[in-house]
Write a structure and sequence with these properties.
single chain, alpha+beta, Ribosomal Protein L25, Chain P, RNA Polymerase Alpha Subunit, Chain A, domain 2, 6-stranded mixed barrel, 4-stranded mixed β-sheet, 4 helices, elongated
């Protein structure tokens, strides 16, 4: 996807924003280029591509493949104030967080279990042209008590991608129904005072 940008002088950020443009910077090891982009165009591209897809940033006629590395947000109005674009090169691996998409309905959920999603992204080092838009994970076979971990994503990733997350991190699990857990806890809580009371009676009889 393409996004147009213009070179800008440093400073005057407020004036840029009032004109409907957002200040940004394009950088890598040898580049540091202040630019501006149209607010609405950036919002549209960012919602579509996120931080894990390469964007063709056209700066005054020159096209630079970039990743969105950081977006500074206005917390009150929830609008972007500034963006950092990382200029990538074809032969240099980049570190990106890629979205995990869960598909299917697990066996455990059909039996009343609850889905506990613990991670929605995986952190990869991969060449720009091989960055997946998302990682699809089929959870249909998961029964109550089953879980998937980062290591289980390997077959869904490009062979060249290096996983930077701990392979033992859980990403999703099917847990027993909450009602059943609460009932178990309630039974345990009721049982404990009875044992204590019984012990107390024994002690009185011995005395």
């Amino acid at each position: 996807m393409k996004l147009e940008a213009s070179k800008r002088a440093a400073g005057a950020a407020d004036a840029l924003r009032r004109s409907g443009r957002m200040p940004a910077v394009v950088y890598n090891r040898i580049l540091n280029l202040p630019v501006s982009v149209d607010f609405k165009a950036f919002d549209r591209v960012f919602r579509s591509q996120g931080t894990s897809s390469v964007i063709d940033l056209e700066v005054d006629g020159q096209v630079l493949p970039v990743l969105v590395k950081d977006v500074q947000m206005d917390k009150r109005r929830r609008v972007p104030l500034h963006a950092d674009f990382f200029a990538v090169t074809a032969d240099q691996a980049v570190s990106v967080h890629v979205r995990i998409e869960f598909v299917g309905t697990s066996i455990g959920a059909k039996e009343g279990g609850q889905i506990d999603v613990q991670r929605r992204e995986v952190y990869l080092s991969v060449l720009p042209r091989l960055i997946p838009n998302h990682v699809e994970v089929d959870i249909s076979a998961l029964a109550i008590g089953d879980s998937l971990h980062v290591r289980d994503l390997r077959s869904s990733l490009p062979p060249e991608a290096e996983v930077l997350d701990d392979p033992d991190l859980a990403i999703i699990a099917v847990v027993p129904p909450r009602v059943a857990i609460e009932e178990e806890e309630a039974v345990e809580e009721e049982a404990e005072p009875e044992v204590i009371a019984k012990g107390g009676e024994d002690e009185e009889e011995e005395g």
